[in-house]
């Protein structure tokens, strides 16, 4: 499942702690896109980066009242428009 995105987007992994954005697209294969959608990653949904683990570890993001931990490789597949 792939959704086209505007050119002003960055991957979720590019955001620093404290930055916010809006989900603009998911680039995932097989059932992973459905798993991301089940976690709340949908186009148009606001997201905030809470913290990043050192040395390329997981990223904690908040979607509404839900916190999700993602690997950097997974966060690279989520396009965000920073706000």
Describe what this molecule looks like in 3D:
With 83 residues, the chain is mostly beta strands. Helices cover 14% and strands 37% of the residues. The protein has a 6-stranded antiparallel beta sheet. A hairpin with a 2-residue loop joins β4 and β5. The radius of gyration is 11 Å and the shape is globular.
Compose a concise summary of this entry.
The protein is mainly beta. The chain is built from two helices and six strands.
What's the layout of helices and strands?
Layout: E1 10-11, E2 20-26, H1 32-39, E3 46-52, E4 59-63, E5 66-70, H2 72-75, E6 78-82
Antiparallel strand pairs: 1-6, 2-3, 2-6, 3-4, 4-5
Strand content: 35-45%
Separation, N- and C-terminal Cα atoms: 25 Å
Order of helices and strands: EEHEEEHE
- The number of helices is 2
Helix content: 10-25%
CATH architecture: Roll
Q: Can you say what the CATH homologous superfamily is?
A: Ferrous iron transport protein A (FeoA)
Radius of gyration: 11 Å
Let me know the average pLDDT: 89
Describe the main β-sheet briefly. Answer: 6 strands, antiparallel
Q: What is the total domain count?
A: 1
Overall 3D shape: globular
Which regions have little confidence, pLDDT < 50, spanning 5+ residues? none
| CATH secondary-structure class | Mainly Beta
- Spatial strand arrangement across the major sheet: 1-6-2-3-4-5
Question: Structural class of the helices, strands and pairings?
Answer: mainly beta
Number of strands: 6
What name does the CATH topology carry? SH3 type barrels
């Amino acid at each position: 499942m792939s959704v086209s995105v505007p050119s002003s987007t960055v991957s979720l992994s590019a955001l620093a702690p404290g930055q916010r954005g809006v989900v603009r697209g998911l680039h995932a294969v097989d059932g992973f896109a459905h798993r991301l959608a089940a976690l709340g990653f949908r186009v148009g949904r606001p997201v905030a980066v809470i913290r990043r683990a050192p040395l390329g570890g997981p990223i904690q993001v908040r979607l509404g009242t839900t916190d999700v931990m993602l690997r950097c490789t997974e966060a690279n597949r989520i396009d965000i428009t920073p706000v």
